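Progress note, sequence design subtask.
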């Protein structure tokens, strides 16, 4: 029983196709079919049920496939270990990446990796996030680069980096000249956002919800490139990872404004199949990715213009604002994120949330001078309005005094 026959069998099962497995192993389709048949004759059992379309594994075939896959992975790791004794990396690593990562940073990384290890081979593929997970689970890709990585029973996730999110707008937008902007200041603005099914959209909506910011989503897209094109024509503002807009900010077609008061970031992770031994090439590639992240962090490129302050280090500085603005941000239930393709003026807050806020302040902890001042101010203003109403309506006052008490009717 040759190791190549085991590898061809595993590739046939993994790719669900004899022709694709044959192409990966540089053999004909008939040769791949004969190898599987020889395995079945040697074992005396059927491994693949060819009567169904597409074919399925028999119970014996499932057991044999799991064992063969583990055996091939151990042999590949052994080969890499032997080669690494000579400090040479000449294996192949296949990387599946989402578009926003691969298009902006991976090309330079691959060139640097090949410069260090000339005999290595890197294959980079761009896919939708769901497809990246599928390729890693099915061993089509050795590594996956995704945002908001999630581990599972078959996937192991490694922390790579965190990309700060910034407000992105057109150069002529009113917020373009701001040094910083808080999420609460986006209330009423038009926004170009991600599709609702993406994790980054849910995280952005959650952050806006926490800051009582009701935005009008006028456009939704599933990729960052299209969102940037819509922002360039001033269709609305957007919240995007900083590394994805560096080219446009340098060219002057977009402005990036740091977010204050909330550490909004997009986590990026490296995933691989759980239980699979990584090759030496994959390990060295992961090391290079983390090395570049440390270099970028130390160079101060987290914020536009290379700013390094307490916000980039995770310390959020409170932004001063007057009492009226603070009261408006705290009062009432958080508004929902609405999708309104037709521009409409922002809704006016009702008086009920303000009254609810005053009741919460009144029940505040004793010794709070600010809370007591707000309560007294509310009372004094209420009394003033009551007094003004009395002074302004003498007719109603005379009418109230002219009322006579009702006489009791004897039984």
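Output:
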């Amino acid at each position: 029983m040759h190791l190549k026959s085991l590898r061809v069998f595993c590739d046939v099962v993994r790719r669900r196709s004899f022709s694709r497995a044959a192409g990966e192993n540089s053999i004909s389709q008939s040769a791949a079919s004969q190898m599987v048949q020889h395995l079945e004759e040697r074992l005396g059992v059927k491994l693949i049920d060819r009567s169904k379309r597409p074919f399925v594994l028999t119970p014996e075939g499932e057991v044999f496939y799991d064992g063969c896959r583990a055996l091939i992975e151990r042999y590949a790791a052994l080969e890499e270990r032997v080669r690494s004794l000579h400090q040479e990396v000449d294996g192949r690593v296949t990387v599946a990446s989402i578009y926003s990562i691969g298009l902006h940073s991976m090309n330079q990384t691959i060139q640097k990796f090949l410069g260090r290890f000339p005999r290595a081979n890197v294959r980079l593929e761009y896919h939708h996030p769901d497809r990246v997970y599928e390729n890693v689970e099915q061993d089509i890709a050795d590594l996956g680069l995704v945002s908001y990585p999630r581990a599972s029973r078959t996937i192991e996730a490694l922390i790579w980096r965190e990309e700060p999110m910034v407000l992105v707008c057109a150069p002529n937008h009113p917020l373009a000249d701001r040094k910083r902007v808080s999420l609460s200041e986006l209330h009423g603005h038009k926004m170009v956002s991600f599709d609702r099914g993406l994790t980054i959209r849910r995280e952005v909506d959650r952050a806006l919800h926490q800051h009582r910011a009701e935005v009008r989503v006028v456009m939704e897209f599933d990729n960052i490139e299209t969102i940037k094109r819509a922002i360039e024509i001033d269709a609305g503002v957007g919240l995007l990872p900083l590394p994805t807009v560096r080219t446009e900010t340098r060219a002057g077609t977009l402005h990036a404004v740091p977010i204050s008061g909330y550490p909004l970031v997009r986590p990026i992770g490296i995933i691989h199949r759980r239980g699979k031994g990584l090759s030496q090439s994959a390990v060295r590639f992961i090391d290079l990715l983390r090395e570049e992240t440390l270099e970028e962090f130390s160079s101060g490129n987290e914020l536009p213009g290379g700013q390094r302050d307490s916000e980039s280090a995770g310390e959020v500085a409170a932004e001063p604002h007057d009492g009226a603005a603070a009261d408006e941000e705290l009062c009432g239930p958080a508004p929902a994120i609405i999708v309104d393709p037709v521009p409409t003026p922002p809704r006016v807050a009702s008086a009920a949330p303000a009254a609810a806020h005053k009741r919460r302040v009144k029940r505040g902890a004793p010794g709070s001078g600010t809370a007591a001042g707000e309560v007294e101010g509310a009372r004094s203003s209420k009394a003033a309005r009551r007094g003004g109403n009395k002074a302004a309506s003498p007719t109603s006052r005379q009418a109230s005094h002219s009322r006579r008490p009702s006489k009791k009717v004897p039984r």
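The radius of gyration is 32 Å. Work on this subtask will continue into the next period as scheduled.
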